[in-house]
Amino acid sequence: MAADTIYVPTESYLSFSTFLEQRSAASPPLDMVVPSDWVAIAATAPVIGRYVLPSQAQVAISQFDGDIGSDLANLNRWRRQVGLPPVDTASDMIITQESDYTLKYAALGSGASRMSVYWLNQGARHFFIKLTPMTVQDNDAVANFVKAYTWF
């Protein structure tokens, strides 16, 4: 009996020097105004903001410009981050069109490794907002922040 085969697309990454070159040519990071109970902690590129919530969960906000991979490639990367196997479709991702950008959302994993990811993009500009570990209450707070903030 032949084993089922799942096609997993490969990802290509920029070198760090290329990332820095593109970053310096790109738009500057946003001045983040986050909820008052989020505590800022150190962040290094490409993360433009990292915060600890009152529950001790963390939010990381990253910004990228250019081609950052397909929905499926990103979904499978996030799945690996929480110990899940790859999938062959991006059906776990919810995609909505907001007024001036596309919002993609995925909630993955379980327990302490549960993560939610919000991916906002407008043309070639992308923001990723990751919450780990995810609880419903924290995810609601992050969702409200994502919807209320002016990203583009």
Q: Describe it for me?
A:
The protein is of the alpha+beta class. The protein has a single domain, classed as Protein Transport Mog1p, Chain A (3-Layer(aba) Sandwich). The chain is 22% helix and 29% strand. A seven-stranded antiparallel sheet has the order 1-2-3-7-6-5-4, with helices on both faces. A hairpin with a 4-residue loop joins strand 4 and strand 5. The longest helix is centred in the last third of the chain and has 13 residues, at 136-148. The chain is globular. Mean pLDDT is 87; it is low at 24-28.
List keywords for this structure.
152 residues; Protein Transport Mog1p, Chain A; alpha+beta; 22% helix
For the biggest β-sheet, the strand order reads 1-2-3-7-6-5-4
User: What percentage of residues falls in helices of 4 or more residues?
Assistant: 10-25%
Uncertain stretches:
24-28
Portion in strands:
25-35%
Order of helices and strands: HEEEHEEEEH
Report on the biggest sheet: 7 strands, antiparallel
CATH architecture: 3-Layer(aba) Sandwich
Q: Between the first and last Cα atoms, what is the distance in angstroms?
A: 52 Å
Could you say what the CATH topology is called?
Protein Transport Mog1p, Chain A
**In CATH, what is the class?**
Alpha Beta
> In DSSP terms, counting alpha (H) and pi (I) runs of 4 or more, how many helices?
3
